[in-house]
Design a protein that fits this description.
This protein is α+β, with helices and mostly antiparallel strands. The chain is built from five helices and 25 strands.
Length: about 400
Amino acid sequence: MESREDKAARIEIDLSYNNFSEQSAPPTCRDSLNLFRSFSEEGNLTWWVPERLSLSKSHYALHINCGGEEYRVGNIVYEGDQYEGGSAKVHPMNAYWGFSSSRRFWDINRTITDHIAQNVTVLGMNHSGLYTRARLSPLSLTYYGRCLADGNYTVKLHFAEIIMRGNKSLYSLGRRILNVYIQGKLELQDFDIVQAAQGVDKVVVKNFTAFVKNKTLEIRFYWAGKGTTAVPGRGNYGPLISSISVESDFKPSNSKKKILIAVPVSVLLFIFTIVTLICWRCYVRQTTSREQLLRGLDLQTGLFTLRQIKAATSNFDAANKIGEGGFGSVYKGTLLDGTIIAVKQLSAKSKQGSCEFVNEIGMISALQHPNLVRLYGCCVEGNHHREQ
């Protein structure tokens, strides 16, 4: 006689796609309780997944071999999906994808392993490893993806009818009809795999564009009660899917490249700032040293600004040039009070430094003779020394 514990172990409750408050979720029994899309948040049904599976880094592709083992097509690896499933299961395969299965096959005692279909003949299509097995559900089968970067994605759904037969016997009368929803939108209605593929054991791939928002994608396969239910045998109905391929229509953001570009720019900016600061300090130090040297000589000369000199010589107009010596050119000028002056500008090619310039100023200012010009002053602004 079956014990109460054994009966309780067989009880599975499907509460998916309901409208409960999250606070009402029971803390236990979740292995036999499907709560997928059963909570309401701001009027929309939200997902429930185990708390231990936190969101990881963003993904840009998802490939699943539904009901089968891991399979490689070129550089693409379709992840295995061999979990047995059940009548009320939400099963995270890992942190970023899983599936939800609903309802029991009402007219036959099927085991949980019967939620995976196995091909009954040798398959001759390309990449047959994607079609030798498929996942089944008597009513609703939903695959979900998490941690996907927001944006547009190309979704490819691979179908192949591997249970119904195409011969002229009773087994060829079966029809599997299903609906397909992507992100809640009905994309395929009354979809007949055999009719679309033009036969059994043949492949048909349906392409769709889906927009991922809040990093989540949902693909739902639903049996709306159409088609046969007992051909080639009882329990042969409901949605069937062979494999799923999801790839982003945009390039993944490469944060490493951004960092590698940003670091050299910041380093160059830092170096430029340091060099500018050093040059400015040298210039200030050089100017200050020249002024200190001049003041230290206690000369009876004045200091003129560069603006005053430019005004007197019409900005060193070539028409005012009256001569040229070993250290630079000499220009005629007129001060604001009408005094006529001669301005000697130190050439950039000259090797004369601060000491030579100060010595020349000191020597000229010390000469006093009626036939010699008098030194009015000098200017130490800018990159050139000037004396008048």
